[in-house]
Design goal:
Length: about 375
């Protein structure tokens, strides 16, 4: 069956959903107000980590493994280099390595490894890193990073090559009648009609689906690029757990743009439309403290670049992929919660298989879970 589908949002999720739907024979219109992977969006910026360790979560391990294969496969088919393999060093500081321990069997079952390594060996191998307060460490060899904003542009281009229609426009409302969504209304007043509408609006979703506000909070995620000596480029990706909702990570060789360093806390709120995206001195101070502790020689490193990005967090850190309440023929892809980029290819395929063949969406992503009291946490909290 050939369906007319509108996808709003050309980030990692909407772009891949549009691509797979168009590839499966639908007539898709992909709409974005600021362009694929734009600097204000969750998919903005140059890179995203892909790692298979997922704290024993089957859904995410499956989606990530499928995505890793798809990223590699499309890189080959399209002659792009969106995926860069680089091993990841997982560090645990004074807390049990539960997240890693739970990841090991699921990864092993799929032929991947996450190996605990003795800290004494790491001290010798990586003299740039201070391991004195690290209690356990793991190496994930198959990890890497993806080119984020470039990937969104490439996917949109490939979607157009398949005959998909891309529009740069602002959607201001769903066009609804008696529970049916007939399409969308643009700020120009133009109305576009479709058989099915998919909203992948990232942090702006609540403008079109106000009910989602109760389950989503948007956080400010500042990313810093520090000047570092050239030998730092050889260091692995590192992810460091310091407590329940405290995680820091970095990509040391970041396209010759410096040592990328960011945090995973979700404590600083952000209005994605109105708030200033400049440096927050309090955040920079905190980042410097962590950096000086882990990479002592970088204690006074210059900031070469800064980017304020945005997480669209579900209250429990899990994705929300479900129908739009009160409608029959529209769905939303939401709550990517700071870990959704890597899974774009598999999520896009899932949406296409769901709409065209009825493939079920994992129940963990349904809105129904919020009917019971649902704690606010991050995806890294596995207990
Ligand atoms: C600093 C940072 C680091 C991250 N690190 C990782 C990582 O290492 N690994 C990982 O897997 N994930 C990571 N993530 C998370 C990941 O990037 C996001 O989960 C993912 O990119 C979200 O994609 P999206 O398509 O849902 O949303 P977005 O990329 O935000 O896309 C939504 C799009 O919708 C458009 N839009 C919204 N409303 C409208 C409208 N009304 N009309 C028209 N267009 C509209 C916007 O312009 C935007 O382009 C990170 C995120 C950040 C911010």
């Amino acid at each position: 069956m050939s369906k007319r589908i509108i996808v709003v949002g050309a980030g990692a999720w909407g772009g891949w959903a549009a691509y797979h739907l168009q590839k499966s024979g639908c007539h898709v219109t992909l709409i974005d107000k600021n362009g694929p992977g734009n600097a204000w969006a969750g998919s903005g910026g140059k890179s995203r980590i892909i790692r298979l360790a997922y704290g024993g979560n089957n859904d995410y391990t499956n989606l990530t493994e499928e995505s890793l294969k798809l990223w590699k496969d499309y890189d080959e088919r399209w002659n792009e280099s969106l995926f860069h393999q680089k091993e990841a060093l997982w560090l645990f500081r004074g807390i049990p390595a539960t997240y890693a321990d739970l990841s090991v069997p699921l990864m092993k079952a799929k032929g991947y490894s996450l190996n605990q390594v003795p800290i004494t060996g790491l001290v010798e191998k990586y003299p740039e890193i201070n391991f004195s307060d690290i209690t356990s460490a793991f190496i994930e060899r198959e990890a890497g990073y993806l080119e984020a904003n470039r990937a969104c542009g490439v996917v949109k281009g490939k979607f157009e090559q398949l005959g998909g229609r891309y529009l740069q426009a602002n959607v201001i409302a769903l066009s609804k009648a008696e529970g049916r969504v007939n399409g969308v209304i643009l700020d120009s007043g133009e109305e576009l009609s479709a058989d099915y509408t998919v909203l992948a609006c990232g942090p702006w979703l609540s403008q079109l689906v106000p009910a989602i506000k109760a389950h989503i909070h948007i956080s400010r995620q500042e990313v810093y690029y520090f000047e570092a000596p050239s030998q730092y480029a050889a260091l692995p990706i590192w992810l460091e757990f310091r407590g329940a909702d405290q995680m820091y990570y970095g990509i040391p060789d970041h396209f010759q743009e410096g040592f990328k360093f960011a945090y995973d806390e979700r404590t600083w709120a952000l209005d994605p439309t109105k708030d200033d995206r400049g440096i927050t001195e309090e955040i920079l101070r905190q980042m410097r403290k962590i950096l000086a502790n882990r990479f002592p020689a970088l204690a006074k490193a210059n900031v070469l670049k800064h980017h304020t990005c945005v997480y669209e967090n579900a209250q429990d850190g899990d994705f929300i992929i479900d129908g739009i309440p009160g409608t029959k023929n529209a769905m939303m892809l939401a709550g990517s919660s700071g870990h959704g980029f890597k899974m774009g290819p598999a999520i896009g395929r899932l949406i296409s298989d769901h709409l065209l063949e009825g493939k079920p969406i994992p129940t963990a992503f349904s809105l129904q879970r919020f009917a019971d009291s649902c704690p606010r946490k991050s995806q890294y909290e596995v207990n």
